[in-house]
C-alpha cells in the first residue's frame, strides 16, 4: 500500500503546487496587463502558463523523488527521463517568453512609427532575431538532452580529440550555409531589403514575403513564390522599389507614324493622367525620344505614390491613348507603305505610278 500511496502523493502534490503557482503568476500578469494597456507584453506572457506549469511540476517531482522507494537502476532511469522532460519544458518556456518579447517590440514600433519603410526594417530584423533565438534554444536543449546519456558523452570526448580536423572539414562543408547566414544578418541590419518591399529580381516583379537566415521568398504579382538564397542579394544587383520612399516615375512608350498630332497627344495624355486616382499630382510629360524611317517613338511619363499605383496608371494611360488614336487619329498609328512616294506639284506627295 505504501509503495503505491507514496508516488501518488508525490505526483499529486507536485501537480497541485505547480497548478497553484502557475495560476498565481497568470493572475498577476492579468492584473499588470490591465494597469499597462499600452504594451501587450504582459498579455502575451500568459501564453507561457502551460510550459511554466510543466517545468514546475517536473522540477518538483524530481526534487521530491527521494521520498519514493525506487533505488538503483529504476531510480536512475526515472531520474533521467525527468531531467529530459525538464530540459524540454524549459526550452518551451524560453521560446514562449522570447516570442512574447519579439511580438511586443514589433507591435510597439509598428504602432508608433510614422515611416512605413522603417517599420518594415524593424519587422525584418525582429523576425530574423526570433528565428536565430529559436534555433539556438533548440540546439542547446537537444545538446543538453544528449549529454544526459553516457554513450553521447563518450562520443563527445572522442570528437573533441579530433576537433581541429573536424573544424576544417565542417568549415568547408558548411561554407554555403555560413555564407547565407552572414548574408541574412547583413540584409537584416544593413537595410538592403525588408519584408513588404517591392523588388525586381531576375526580371520578376514581386513583394518580399518572408526572410529567414538562409533564404528569402518573393511573392510575384501572379501569386507565385520564388525562393532564393539570401546570399543572392549580397552578391548580385537587384531593384528595390521601396527603398528611400515608394514614389516612382513610370513611362509608356508608343510607336507612331510621323504624322501623329503631338500637341493633341500631349493634351489627351494630360487629361487621362489628371483624371486618374493613381496619379500623385507631381509630374507628367510627353516627349519624342527616337525616330526611325517609318515611325517615331513617343514617351509619356507620369508619377505615382507607390509601385502598385504606377503600374495601374501606366496601364490606364497606354490603353486609353491607343483607343483614342484608333478612334480619332487612325492615320497616326504605324503603317506599312507598299508604294513609293515622290514630291508632287506644290510639295504634295504622290505615288510614283501616278500620272
Structural class label: alpha+beta
Count of individual helical segments? 11
Average pLDDT: 77
Total domain count: 3
Span between termini = 129 Å
**Side-by-side strand order of the widest sheet:** 4-3-2-1-5
What is the general shape?
Answer: elongated
Largest sheet: 5 strands, antiparallel
Percent helix range: 55-70%
In percent, how much strand structure appears in the residues?
Answer: 15-25%
Order of helices and strands: HHHHHHHHEEEEHEEHEEHEE
| Number of E-type strands | 10
Low-confidence stretches: 162-166, 168-174, 347-355
Radius of gyration: 35 Å
Summarize the structure.
This protein has 355 residues and is an alpha+beta fold.
List the helices and strands and how they pair.
Blueprint: H1 2-35, H2 41-45, H3 49-63, H4 72-112, H5 116-146, H6 150-161, H7 163-173, H8 175-190, E1 198-201, E2 204-211, E3 215-220, E4 225-229, H9 232-235, E5 239-240, E6 248-256, H10 262-275, E7 279-291, E8 296-304, H11 307-328, E9 341-343, E10 349-351
Antiparallel strand pairs: 1-2, 1-5, 2-3, 3-4, 6-8, 7-8, 9-10
Describe this structure in words.
This protein is of the alpha+beta class. It has three domains: 2-112, no CATH class; 176-240, SH3 type barrels (Roll), CATH 2.30.30; 248-332, 2-Layer Sandwich (Alpha-Beta Plaits), CATH 3.30.70.100. The chain has eleven helices and ten strands. The chain has helices spanning 2-35, 41-45, 49-63, 72-112, 116-146, 150-161, 163-173, 175-190, 232-235, 262-275, 307-328, and strands spanning 198-201, 204-211, 215-220, 225-229, 239-240, 248-256, 279-291, 296-304, 341-343, 349-351. The strands form three sheets. A five-stranded antiparallel β-sheet has the order 4-3-2-1-5. A three-stranded antiparallel β-sheet has the order 6-8-7, covered by helices on one side. A hairpin with a 4-residue loop joins β3 and β4. α1 (2-35) packs antiparallel against α3 (49-63). It is elongated, with a radius of gyration of 35 Å. The model is unreliable at 162-166, 168-174 and 347-355 (pLDDT under 50).
Amino acid at each position: 500500500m505504501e509503495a503505491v500511496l507514496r508516488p501518488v502523493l508525490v505526483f499529486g502534490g507536485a501537480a497541485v503546487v505547480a497548478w497553484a503557482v502557475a495560476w498565481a503568476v497568470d493572475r498577476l500578469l492579468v492584473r499588470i496587463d490591465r494597469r499597462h494597456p499600452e504594451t501587450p507584453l504582459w498579455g502575451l506572457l500568459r501564453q507561457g502558463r502551460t510550459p511554466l506549469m510543466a517545468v514546475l511540476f517536473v522540477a518538483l517531482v524530481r526534487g521530491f523523488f527521494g521520498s519514493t522507494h525506487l533505488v538503483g537502476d529504476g531510480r536512475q532511469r526515472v531520474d533521467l527521463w525527468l531531467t529530459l522532460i525538464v530540459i524540454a519544458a524549459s526550452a518551451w518556456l524560453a521560446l514562449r517568453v522570447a516570442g512574447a518579447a519579439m511580438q511586443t517590440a514589433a507591435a510597439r514600433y509598428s504602432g508608433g512609427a510614422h515611416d512605413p519603410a522603417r517599420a518594415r526594417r524593424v519587422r525584418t530584423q525582429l523576425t530574423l532575431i526570433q528565428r536565430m533565438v529559436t534555433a539556438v534554444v533548440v540546439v542547446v536543449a537537444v545538446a543538453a538532452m544528449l549529454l544526459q546519456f553516457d554513450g553521447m558523452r563518450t562520443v563527445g570526448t572522442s570528437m573533441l580529440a579530433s576537433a581541429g580536423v573536424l573544424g576544417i572539414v565542417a568549415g568547408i562543408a558548411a561554407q554555403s550555409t555560413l555564407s547565407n547566414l552572414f548574408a541574412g544578418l547583413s540584409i537584416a541590419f544593413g537595410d538592403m531589403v525588408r519584408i513588404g518591399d517591392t523588388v525586381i529580381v531576375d526580371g520578376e516583379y514581386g513583394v518580399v514575403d518572408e526572410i529567414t537566415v538562409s533564404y528569402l521568398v518573393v511573392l510575384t504579382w501572379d501569386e507565385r513564390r520564388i525562393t532564393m538564397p539570401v546570399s543572392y542579394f549580397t552578391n548580385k544587383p537587384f531593384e528595390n522599389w521601396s527603398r528611400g520612399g515608394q514614389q516612382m516615375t513610370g513611362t509608356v512608350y508608343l510607336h507612331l507614324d510621323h504624322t501623329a498630332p503631338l500637341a493633341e497627344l500631349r493634351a489627351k495624355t494630360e487629361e487621362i493622367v489628371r483624371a486618374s486616382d493613381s496619379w500623385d499630382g507631381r509630374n507628367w510629360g510627353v516627349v519624342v525620344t527616337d525616330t526611325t524611317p517609318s515611325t517615331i517613338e513617343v514617351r509619356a511619363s507620369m508619377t505615382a505614390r507607390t509601385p502598385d499605383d504606377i503600374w495601374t496608371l501606366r496601364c490606364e494611360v497606354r490603353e486609353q491613348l491607343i483607343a483614342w488614336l484608333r478612334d480619332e487619329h487612325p492615320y497616326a498609328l504605324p503603317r506599312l507603305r507598299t508604294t513609293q512616294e515622290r514630291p508632287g506639284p506644290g510639295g504634295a506627295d504622290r505615288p510614283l505610278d501616278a500620272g
